[in-house]
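Lab notes, practical 5.
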Amino acid sequence: MRTLIAYAGKTGNTAKCARKLAIHLNQVTLVDLNAEVVNPKDFDAVLLPALFIVINLNVQ
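Output from the prediction step:
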């Protein structure tokens, strides 16, 4: 199965996450969406890794 892992980020954390995912899969294409365009129709599966930051705004 051809798998696309497409990511975009500013600090490199999402790229690191994408590379760690790719280690566990076969026939993987990693794409930095900040640098190139890819057609997801060319792949059987598409993963879009993302990192989320949670901030507590409840300041007392």
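Observations recorded by the TA: The chain has one helix and three strands. The longest strand covers residues 3-7.
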